[in-house]
Design goal:
alpha+beta, three-stranded mixed beta sheet
């Protein structure tokens, strides 16, 4: 089952309401996306911690073969 870019953004925005979020559908199939999330809360966190926080916001949508979201190329950073 595919996801819409808007649904991915809503899930991320729930956890990061003031973030700058860009979602790109990489293959046009609703299963392969790229996301850039820039948020103040990432200051002091390493990249792995930042990405884990974003994946947690997806609430299991990427879990296993039955996940609604197959692939998400994730870029995270704090604002400069």
């Amino acid at each position: 089952m595919a996801m819409e870019a808007e649904d991915i953004e809503k899930l991320i925005r729930t956890r990061f309401p003031k973030a700058a979020i860009t979602i790109t559908d990489l293959a046009g199939d609703g299963n392969h996306y790229a996301a850039e999330v820039i948020d103040e809360s990432f200051k002091g966190m390493n990249r792995v911690q930042q990405q884990r926080a974003v994946y947690a916001a997806l609430k299991g949508k990427m879990d296993g073969a039955q996940g609604e979201l197959h692939a998400l190329a994730l870029t995270t950073k704090a604002p400069e």
